[in-house]
Amino acid sequence: MSLLSDSQKVSMAEGTGSLAEVEISFRKFAVHGDTKATGKEMNGKNFVKLCKDCRVIDGKNVTSTDADIVFSKVKCKTARVITFEQFSQALTELAPKRFKGKGQEEALQLLYGLIAGKEPANVGITKVAKAAAVDRLTDSSKYTGSHKERFDDTGKGKGKAGRQDIPDTSGYVGAYKGQGTYEDKVKPQQDQ
């Protein structure tokens, strides 16, 4: 039998965070994806990203639509961003939805625990595609026709020689097989 109550177990599992740690996470998410952001104000897109990455949005009790609605409620009418004070107000509105059956203050502490110390996740961004089609298309050993002439046996490109017909100015006809043997034939006759 456990000595901890159910609410203590949940708070230990979820973790509780201080308002200062939540503010650090707020600043990290506020500047995510925006080079001009100062970290003092957060737009709606980054608010929803924070909610998703910190598992405030669980798909059942809180959805991304709920997060958008709460964001619209707390921001000023003409503004497109919220300050940290407005962010705290938004969390106060989301906490009872996320943790049903908990008191307002306890739910808010659990929500702080989800957010505290988190950073924006960059999952699945700019991955290199590894597909059989891509491998087949980029393997120069499988090229045919005129494209095959652009690469040597190792797969390295020949450069300009592979793209253009450079005229042979050696003086020999293209199909002549004895190129470079003239000197060998002439020298033995001169020695006599």
Automatic annotation (TrEMBL):
<dbReference type="GO" id="GO:0001578">
    <property type="term" value="P:microtubule bundle formation"/>
</dbReference>
<feature type="compositionally biased region" description="Basic and acidic residues">
    <location>
        <begin position="182"/>
        <end position="192"/>
    </location>
</feature>
<protein>
    <recommendedName>
        <fullName>Tubulin polymerization-promoting protein family member 3</fullName>
    </recommendedName>
</protein>
<dbReference type="InterPro" id="IPR008907">
    <property type="entry name" value="TPP/p25"/>
</dbReference>
<dbReference type="GO" id="GO:0015631">
    <property type="term" value="F:tubulin binding"/>
</dbReference>
<comment type="similarity">
    <text>Belongs to the TPPP family.</text>
</comment>
<dbReference type="InterPro" id="IPR011992">
    <property type="entry name" value="EF-hand-dom_pair"/>
</dbReference>
<feature type="region of interest" description="Disordered">
    <location>
        <begin position="143"/>
        <end position="192"/>
    </location>
</feature>
<dbReference type="GO" id="GO:0005874">
    <property type="term" value="C:microtubule"/>
</dbReference>
<dbReference type="GO" id="GO:0005737">
    <property type="term" value="C:cytoplasm"/>
</dbReference>
<dbReference type="GO" id="GO:0032273">
    <property type="term" value="P:positive regulation of protein polymerization"/>
</dbReference>
<keyword id="KW-0963">Cytoplasm</keyword>
<dbReference type="Pfam" id="PF05517">
    <property type="entry name" value="p25-alpha"/>
</dbReference>
<dbReference type="GO" id="GO:0046785">
    <property type="term" value="P:microtubule polymerization"/>
</dbReference>
<feature type="compositionally biased region" description="Basic and acidic residues">
    <location>
        <begin position="146"/>
        <end position="166"/>
    </location>
</feature>
